[in-house]
Amino acid sequence: MTIPPVRWALVGYGSGGRVFHAPMLAGADGVELVAVVTGDPGRRAEVADRLPSARAVSDLTELPDLGVAAVTITTPPATHTDLAHRALDLGLDVVVDKPFALTEAAARRLVDHARDAGRMLTVYQNRRWDTDFLTVRRLIADGRLGRVHRFVSRIDRLRPVRPGWATAVSTGGGTLLDLGPHLIDQALQLFGPVARLHAQLRAIRPGSGAEDEVELHLEHAGGVFSTIAAGMASAAEGPRLQVNGDRGGYLVDGFDVQEAQLKSGASPRTLGDAWGVEPPSGFGRLTTADGTVVVPSERGRWDWFYPAAAAAVRGEGPVPVDPNDAVATARIIDQARISAAEHRVVEV
């Protein structure tokens, strides 16, 4: 017996919806992308052109009549929780893009609502399936680094200030909410809860009303020290990941290949087995007492997220990302703002 796919809707069709989510949904096993919600007439026309099998609608309330079971919220950050609450009230299962919520309190309310409603709720932490992150997990699991004591994760970019929601903290703008959720989540996944932290948040670019340079120093309860850094005013890129243990260290430059593949117009469906495969130029290096060797990267698997989410909707497996993990990340972000404002180390 063939199991029918989960009928899915995409809420929002900006760059996140168009570039990062639509291709992943369209090619996911067990998923049928049947609708896109956008209030922009131009974007509704674009949906009709790019996604002829999906219907463009202007409001969430139209989705139940289309037989939609689950939605992905990929709108400006300040709207995420309101739209997610509305979707839950309509009886829909929900994926929320990062940031899950602007504050820890808002994140907890959303998790509680989904629990009380008996609906599936998860967050799109696709960076858990980056090539470099999966490679680090393998090296740690295989014991090749020994006991890890230091982790550095950074993304350096040089981007102009663009008018809109991204330039104000009140509307969910700023680098801490943009890149922070991914980098913090990766650190928590690798090394567990944080006991205390210190943060520096700065607005460097003229006209940037929100922080565009971020550095967090996290002391994990297990003893690892993590440095999280991200910036939109940094032209010279540092290493993407650096991990040091008492037996070896790993360093990798550049960015996971999957983002570039999506931006080029490719998708898991069009690339097949070439999806997520890092070229040798993107491999990292492992250094031990015996010298330095190049380490082939694990294959990136962003394409695993939506099939897992669909299985969770059908009650056949766990959610791909526990929403309580997003609450933990939101707490780190809240505490980072306190640390930066008061110039002190704060307990988490």
From TrEMBL:
Keyword terms, alphabetized: Oxidoreductase
GO molecular function ontology, one term from the record: nucleotide binding
Domain Gfo/Idh/MocA-like oxidoreductase N-terminal span(s) in chain numbering: 6-124
Source species, domain of life: Bacteria
SUPFAM superfamilies: Glyceraldehyde-3-phosphate dehydrogenase-like, C-terminal domain, NAD(P)-binding Rossmann-fold domains
Residues of the GFO/IDH/MocA-like oxidoreductase domain: 133-249
Pfam families with a match to the protein in the record: GFO_IDH_MocA, GFO_IDH_MocA_C3
Alphabetical list of InterPro entries matching this protein: Gfo/Idh/MocA-like_OxRdtase_N, Gfo/Idh/MocA_oxidoreduct, GFO_IDH_MocA-like_dom, NAD(P)-bd_dom_sf
Family listed: Belongs to the Gfo/Idh/MocA family.
UniProt-recorded name of the protein: Predicted dehydrogenase
